[in-house]
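thread: overnight batch results

M.L. [08:02]
morning all. the overnight job finished for the chain we discussed friday. pasting input first so we're all looking at the same thing
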Amino acid sequence: MKTFKILTVITVISLALFSFTTLIQEEWKVPAKYETMKNPIDAKTDAAIGKSLYTKHCKSCHGAEGYGDGTKADEMDGELGDFSSEEFQAQSDGALFYKTSFGRLDMPEYTKKMQDDEDRWLIVNYMRTLAE
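M.L. [08:03]
and the structure it wrote out:
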């Protein structure tokens, strides 16, 4: 009985450590260079183009309002995020540009689909309009 309790405690601790390690590995690290990068496109510039690009490239997964509820969302393994949330909106423009540009896991890299950096900056500006 005592051995069973010890094994149970060890198992619980092991599972907790494994879960914690998994969370750490899944954190999306943004290089400092991008974290501090300033958006060169004024937020009011070409807003319709930003929305159009978002609709074409992002809406199917992230949804029309950025809630992570697009038509392809159920096919994705990771968390799609809620672009309207304070947590999402607290990220720097540079961080959003980096994530949009280089992706990870289910999020594709867009540097080849949208080779012009300006297009990805316009999407960042549009994502800012999805705040609650």
